[in-house]
Automatic annotation (TrEMBL):
Cofactor(s) annotated in UniProt: pyridoxal 5'-phosphate
Family, per entry: Belongs to the DegT/DnrJ/EryC1 family. L-glutamine:2-deoxy-scyllo-inosose/scyllo-inosose aminotransferase subfamily.
Pfam families per the UniProt record, alphabetical: DegT_DnrJ_EryC1
GO terms for biological process, alphabetical: polysaccharide biosynthetic process
Name by which UniProt lists this protein: Azi19
Location of the active site: 207 (proton acceptor)
InterPro entries noted in UniProt: DegT/StrS_aminotransferase, PyrdxlP-dep_Trfase, PyrdxlP-dep_Trfase_major, PyrdxlP-dep_Trfase_small
UniProt lineage: Bacteria, Bacillati, Actinomycetota, Actinomycetes, Kitasatosporales
Keyword set, alphabetical order: Aminotransferase, Pyridoxal phosphate, Transferase
Any one GO MF annotation of this record: pyridoxal phosphate binding
Length: 440
């Protein structure tokens, strides 16, 4: 066990000093600069305010910049990450009667996009080391109606695209990447978004590449998919070369991004690589310290991949606390209480596997049957959802290094009190995902 940098091992929950001082600085995300404000003001003052207006240039500028950043031929900017996924699937011809393989551990938007395209999400388990779609589990749930794979580069780590590509190749179906959380992450030197038939990004303000509201980006090397995407985001109309035709060539919707959001993201993009480079050492130092704590699994980065560190997921092993797997939820809840009292803003990211949620249950399946299926088929997702804690947003500030060091102090302090943690976890039970579903 490393020496404690902090003066006391008495937990803040029991009246000790907080490991993370209340007046700690850093940890703001997104960072909005004068340049970002001016970019938005320029659009507000000079217009056009709508992406379909003649002369609009922010959206095209953002698309060219992101295509270049990802090394793809095309980029289409849209209204949100969910819209990006929905349009990409429809552009690939996915529709009613089709099944799309998605990981059971992801933001619900991944599955919503499949449903919005008229297809059915089929859930596969995630890998216990990377939390991304497990290719073996994906292969096991593929069937005659499988029409696409939709891996998620969850928390910023590229999914195992080599194995998934191979699976998709065998089945003759496309891979659409959900890269909503993984801007800039790489696999074998190629950036996500350039790894599948289409790559889908979110520009939600909390993402690594934020907009000032909502937005999404779709990347592709495929010229005809690009043409479809342009139509699908704008009422099925052809890209106007002059005046708009208002002729709908396919059923579509309005999924345009606003020029203000595009201008803001373009301005952020100018600093994107610099921020990524500057946040990396602080996050690595933090995770290296946590990796010394017995029984705490920190994010893994397999060879050939880089991590965008969008979310940091931490998985305590009950055994290290002298506990059995039945105490997984109680251990997570105890650590949650103790760490938050120390000033570490740990949170949960996903509280129930998607496959058990009312929106995505197989038609006709009772809640109890769906839950039993989840336990049987998605054991890793269940363990991760019930047993892990996450850090979100604050570490994205490139100046968050010292703050992260104080978080590491807090973890080390907690690990000096393992017996107390153990007692808390055994004296008080905590709700697992089944209860979360009942209460939600
Ligand atoms: C993995 C994943 N997919 C899709 C989305 C949807 O993106 P948006 O919120 O921009 O619609 C998100 C956003 O949180 C996400 O995390």
């Amino acid at each position: 066990m490393p020496e404690l940098a902090h003066a006391t091992t008495r937990l803040a929950l029991l009246g000790g000093d907080r490991a993370v001082p209340k007046d700690s600085v850093g940890g703001t995300w997104p960072l909005v600069t004068t340049a970002d404000e001016q970019a938005v003001l320029r659009v507000l003052r000079e217009g056009p305010l709508n992406a379909a207006s003649p002369g609009e240039r922010e959206v095209g500028g953002l698309e060219r910049a992101w295509a270049q950043a990802t090394g793809t031929r095309h980029c289409v900017a849209v209204a949100s990450g969910t819209a990006a996924l929905h349009l990409a699937l429809r552009g690939c011809g996915i529709g009613p009667g089709d099944e799309v393989i998605v990981p059971a551990l992801t933001m619900n938007a991944t599955a919503h996009a499949v449903c919005a395209a008229g297809a059915t999400p089929v859930f596969a388990d995630v890998d216990p080391d990377t939390y991304t779609l497990d290719p073996r589990s994906a292969a096991a749930v593929c069937g005659p109606r499988t029409a696409a794979l939709l891996p998620v580069h969850l928390h910023g780590l590229p999914a195992d695209m080599r194995a998934l590509d191979e699976l998709a190749g065998r089945r003759g179906v496309p891979v659409v990447e959900d890269a909503a959380q993984a801007h800039g992450a790489q696999l074998d030197g190629r950036r996500v978004g350039a790894l599948g038939k289409a790559g889908c990004f979110s520009l939600h303000p909390h993402k690594n590449l934020p907009s000032c509201g909502e937005g999404g980006l779709i990347t592709t090397d495929d010229d005809s998919l690009h043409e479809q995407l342009v139509r699908l985001r704008n009422f099925g109309e052809l890209e106007p070369t002059g005046a708009r035709s208002y002729i709908a060539h396919r059923a579509a919707l309005n999924a345009r991004i606003t020029p203000m959001a595009a201008a803001f993201t373009r301005s952020q993009l100018a600093r994107f690589d610099d921020y990524a480079r500057r946040r990396e050492p602080g996050i690595r130092r933090f995770l290296n310290r946590l990796a010394q704590l017995p029984g705490l699994r920190v994010p893994q980065v397999p060879a050939g991949r880089t991590h965008a560190w969008h979310i940091l997921r931490l998985m305590p092993d009950p055994e290290a606390f002298g506990l059995g797997p039945e105490h997984r939820c109680a251990l997570r809840a105890a650590l949650h209480r103790i760490l938050r009292a120390e000033g570490v803003p740990v949170s949960r990211y996903q509280v129930a596997p998607l496959a058990a949620q009312p929106a995505f249950r197989p038609p006709g399946a009772s809640p109890a049957d769906a839950a039993d299926q989840v336990d049987a088929l998605l054991p890793v997702t269940v363990a991760v959802v019930d047993g892990s804690l996450c850090l979100q947003r604050r570490h994205l500030d490139p100046a968050a290094g010292p703050l992260l060091q104080s978080y590491a102090d807090a973890f080390e302090k907690v690990w000096q009190n393992l017996e107390l943690v153990r007692r808390m976890a055994t004296s008080r039970s905590a709700p697992g995902w089944r209860e979360a579903l009942r209460q939600g």
